[in-house]
Structure to design on (948 residues):
């Protein structure tokens, strides 16, 4: 079905490993020692895959078969609408945003229609701040806008609130034809959105049953948005499939990238690294760090293990961007506590090169820039940061993509999803649920006055009766 | 000089403190017990202020006197240029960006000129990714663009590289008049940019001597950009001055907001919280989290204390955004390890209200939204998240701004700067240097072939001779 080895993804984990310069690094035999656990994880994940818990991998071929319908619809709406707005939150927002920002122009929405190949501008409304909501409405002509409501259950309060407002606006402005401005991505059989979509005649795409929000990018959740923006969705899936095959076929920690990365994370975590920094040296991958942060935090931050014991574990993901954050965070990473590992993401090659002009009149300490390129400077800074971290005894690794294209992004998504799944197994927790989100939802229902939550409301009002508040007295 | 108490900033630290619901919270007497240390810190900071290390506070009145020149220049260029681009990195970028995003339209650059009150579009180029650089050039007409080069020393490699490219482009495109497209913000007396600016006739603004990048927002670094975007810079300074006075006049931990916040941070840090989450529930403050992350990380992440002992301390700042990240990070914050505190930032009131329409046909579990407003939902979710954290035994606090306006943003900036300064004193480290950044700079010089760094280059090349690399074998 797909082209193999079209672009190479490399993991350089030298900075994690013991050496003369890195005496606190991991030993090869520590990695080897995890193999029995990894073998067990592999077997457990194979079972999960067969029973519908690992659909981000299992359903890739099926997604491929859905592409013709997705692309046909995307082409049709691309010629009709000037704007495409995702209404979604969490995985429904972070995935589409990360992929669009990685693969399209950095200032995409400011390009002329021609320079966008007559594709719509792209917005993701992932919050309910009333000011931002209204400000978005100010820059969009609703008559020329398509809204994609994404929620599997249709009871995501934020998304449904947005939907109700948008639908109301569209009805007033577009009359009967309002339904053509709404496309719904939701469950096949149940939830609140499905009957509304059927009744009102919204175009509809399906989120496969076994997929949670943070693993849903390579389903219609992400593929529709990508296709509408003109991203090569075949290549995205091809890269994902290539990585998926690699991970399912390679059998040990030194050849299987997901096993390797999970093992490195697990050993570091055991040694007290409770922070995992994700630091691309590529502006287009800045939003990918947000996507990764949800994946890692929500999958692995768990109170109970599979045996029901209270373990309260999880690494905190931190997003950074090189070289920018060398001037913001790297002081802490090198000199602060030894409580984190850093994962760099770099490219073999940027799409463009940018030369720095020579000026012989410049002072010595900036003269050296002339005649070099921006990317040479960027690569030198990345390597120098690695070296500074190593000198400081801090561990780091690097994911190297051949280029920033759809194939490589597909590879990266699957690698990180599989790494997370393996890490869940090593930690013996369920990486696919999010029980901690429920308490907050119930509290919201109570405070919004939903029937049946009166008792909870009383509890919340009781909390904080003893207030500690500082206000100005001047 | 300024209006006092125009808008109230409140700190609600109930969620940090011991109570029936929060048995692991701090005791009032623990805060009281820090008073001697805080008194010592206050005295030390007063000395630093007199000796030019606390110019972010000391120079506020002087900045006020510079406003007429800044505003006059801003008005002049606003009518002439369609675009304003900051070339800077670290504090030179994060401050201007945070304030602009807090106080201007969320989709500012997409507004018509009229809706921008004929102010220029605003860009901050804070990285050297060659693709982003060229893509920015694609959406700007250089003939209608003003570039603000910000670097105190003029040897910031990234900014100087950008400057060299932009100057070259402008010379080719605008001929003799190229110098009118460049305004330089740099040191008064020294550095590499100053002689270039003098020789080529660039308009020039001064970064006061005693101010480091991360404390420079309320100097011409940030004030010029703000004025050009039409932000009320008087109110920004007035809010800052009000907070500055409050902090310098209130004498104890329960009345001084900087002492209080530093004490809360210090006690939490002592109890093993090595992570500090900054989580505004306001879309406009998303970038403020980046600014805060630099301030906290670079100021407090230090290898040695003032006595020269190796301490390797510092809390890792994490940026989050409510309600969005409830669907991404809060699972970890409630169920994961008890290794963090969360600081919420909320508003008393949003500028706009947005009602959610009623639809009696909706299923019960979303019916409750109808007739309420987006901001009610947002406030309920924030409060529910507080409650969920408290139930889970996790500590949190809340900064409440009266509204998102220039006065409140000025207050917030000074509060966080003073908190950081106090925290530095409590930790007995120098919060105003960044020695760890040097090693990376030297490495970059070496790898870029700068004369005098040959030995360093050899060292770097020696590192990682034993490579650990995983590449696909299929």
């Amino acid at each position: 079905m797909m082209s193999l080895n079209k672009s190479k993804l490399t993991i350089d984990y030298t900075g994690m490993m013991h050496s003369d310069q890195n005496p606190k690094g991991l030993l090869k035999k520590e990695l080897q020692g995890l193999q029995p656990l990894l073998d067990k994880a592999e077997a457990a994940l194979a079972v999960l895959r067969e029973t519908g818990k690992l659909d981000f991998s299992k359903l890739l071929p099926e997604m491929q078969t859905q592409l013709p319908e997705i692309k046909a619809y995307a082409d049709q709406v691309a010629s009709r609408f000037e704007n495409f707005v995702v209404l979604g939150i969490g995985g429904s927002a972070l995935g589409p945003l990360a992929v669009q920002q990685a693969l399209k122009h950095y200032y995409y929405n400011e390009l002329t229609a021609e320079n966008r190949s007559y594709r719509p501008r792209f917005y993701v409304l992932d919050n309910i701040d009333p000011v931002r909501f209204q400000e978005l409405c100010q820059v969009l002509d609703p008559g020329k806008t398509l809204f994609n409501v994404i929620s599997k259950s249709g009871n995501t309060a934020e998304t449904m609130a947005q939907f109700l407002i948008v639908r109301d606006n569209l009805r007033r402005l577009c009359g009967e034809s309002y339904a053509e401005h709404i496309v719904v991505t939701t469950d096949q059989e149940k939830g609140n959105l499905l009957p509304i979509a059927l009744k009102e005649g919204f175009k509809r795409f399906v989120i496969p049953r076994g997929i949670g929000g943070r693993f849903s990018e390579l389903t219609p959740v992400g593929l529709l948005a990508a296709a509408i923006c003109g991203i090569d969705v075949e290549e995205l899936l091809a890269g994902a499939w290539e990585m998926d095959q690699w991970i399912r076929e390679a059998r040990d920690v030194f050849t299987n990238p997901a096993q390797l990365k999970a093992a490195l994370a697990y050993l570091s975590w055991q040694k007290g690294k409770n922070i995992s920094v994700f630091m691309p040296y590529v502006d287009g991958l800045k939003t990918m760090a947000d996507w990764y942060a949800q994946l890692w935090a929500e999958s692995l931050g768990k109170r109970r293990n599979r045996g029901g014991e209270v373990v309260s574990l999880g690494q905190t993901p931190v997003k950074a961007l090189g070289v920018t954050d060398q001037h913001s965070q790297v002081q802490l990473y090198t000199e602060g506590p030894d409580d984190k590992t850093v994962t760099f993401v770099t490219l073999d090659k940027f799409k463009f090169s940018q030369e720095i002009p020579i000026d012989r009149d410049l002072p010595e300490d900036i003269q050296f820039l002339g005649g070099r390129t921006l990317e040479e400077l960027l690569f030198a800074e990345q390597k120098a940061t690695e070296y500074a971290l190593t000198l400081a005894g801090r561990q780091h690794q690097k994911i190297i993509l051949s280029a920033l294209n759809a194939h490589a992004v597909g590879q990266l998504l699957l690698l990180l999803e599989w790494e997370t799944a393996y890490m869940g197994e090593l930690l013996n927790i369920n990486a696919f649920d999010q029980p901690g989100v429920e308490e907050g939802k119930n509290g919201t229902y109570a405070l919004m006055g939903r029937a049946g939550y009166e008792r909870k409301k009383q509890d919340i009002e009781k909390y904080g009766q003893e207030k500690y508040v500082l206000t100005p007295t001047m």
Observations:
- Confidence is low (pLDDT under 50) at residues 1-5 of chain B.
- The first strand of chain B starts at residue 9 and ends at 12.
- The CA atoms of residues 101 and 268 of chain B lie 31 Å apart.
- The two ends of chain B are 72 Å apart (CA to CA).
